[in-house]
Amino acid sequence: LYRDVARTIRADVRGRPVLLAAAPDASTSVAYYGDFDSLGTLYWENREGLSRASRLLAAQDENAAADLARRWGVTHFALFGFDGGGRLYAPDDSAAEMALGPALLNGSSNPAWLRPLVYDVPSQFGRIESRVRLFVVDFTQTPAEAAYRHGMAAIGYGEFERALRCFAQAAALSPESPAPWMRLGELQLLLGQSAEALQSVLKGIGTLPVAAREQAYLDAAKLFAAKGARAEADALLDQAVNAGLR
Q1: Which of 32, 143, 154, 244 lies 20 to 30 A from 104 at CA?
Q2: Per-residue b/e over 75-97, b at no fewer than 16 CB within 10 Å?
Q3: Measured distance CA(201)–CA(206) in Å, rounded
C-alpha cells in the first residue's frame, strides 16, 4: 500500500522534489518507496523533522498550518485511517478531531491551500486499509477552485453531503462560474432534491454565453427526465424554447 501511494505521488509531481508530511510509520515507508524526502520519521537524528510534523498535523488553525507548510517547503500530505491521520500528534483527545491531520482524513477540513489527489485504495489492500487521503500543497489555486476540487474529490470518495457543501461554497465564491452550479445541481438531483437541483442548474446555465444556453437547457432536461424529475425537465424544455426564440 505504501509503495502504491508513493507511486501515485511520484506520478503527480513528474520529477519535481517532494517533501511529504505524514504520521511517522507512513512517512518513513512512503518516502522510502518514493525515493523522496519526508518529515516526521522516527529516527533520533530527525527530532526537528518529527517536531515539525507534529506541529503541522496537530495544528488547530488552517492558516497557521499553511504558514508552516510554506516555510518548510512541504509539498504533499498522506493520511491513513489506521494512524488516524496523525492523531497521535494531538495533545489530547478533545483536540484530536480538530487537528489538521485527522480533520483532513475525515473530510471536516477543506483548506484552500491543499489540492486533493484522489486515491482509490486497490482492492488487494482493502484488508490493510480502506481510507487514504492524499493532498498536494498548492498556493496558486483560488478559494473557489479549491472548494470545487474538494467537492470533486468528495464525490470520488462517495462523500456526497460534503460534496454538496463544497460545491455550494464554490458557487458562492464564484457565482459567475457555471461548473460549481452544474455540479451542485447534478448532485442534488442524484440525491432526490429535484427542485433544488433545478434552481442550481438554472443559475449555472444563466452564466453561459447566450448562444450556448439552448443546448445546455436541452441537455439538462434529458438528465432530469432520466432521473424521473418530469416537472423540472418540462421547465427546462420551456427555457430551451425561449432561448431558441431569442
Answers
A1: 32
A2: bbbbbbeebbbbbebbeeeeebe
A3: 8
Cell of 208: 453561459
Three-class SS of residue 137?
strand
The secondary structure element, H or E, covering residue 133 is strand 132-137
Going by pLDDT thresholds of 50, 70 and 90, the confidence category of residue 134 is very high
Distance CA 111, CA 130 (A): 23
- Alpha helices (runs of H) in the chain, residue ranges in sequence order: 2-13, 24-34, 47-57, 62-72, 93-96, 100-106, 143-156, 160-173, 178-190, 194-206, 210-226, 230-245
Q: For residue 126, what pLDDT band results from cuts at 50, 70 and 90?
A: confident
Give me the pLDDT at residue 130, please.
78
How far apart CA 29 and CA 21 sit, in angstroms, is: 12
- In terms of Cβ atoms closer than 10 Å to its own Cβ (0-12, 13-18, 19+), residue 17 is exposed
Average pLDDT over residues 1-24: 93
- For 168-225, write each residue's pLDDT tens digit: 999 999 999 999 999 999 999 999 999 999 999 999 999 999 999 999 999 999 999 9
Q: In this structure, are residues 42 and 28 in contact, taking their beta carbons and an 8 Å threshold?
A: yes
49 CB-contact burial (10 Å; exposed 0-12 / middle 13-18 / buried 19+): buried
- Enclosing H/E stretch for 23: none
Which cell numbers in the block locate residue 244? 431558441
pTM: 0.91
Strand pairing partners for 96? none
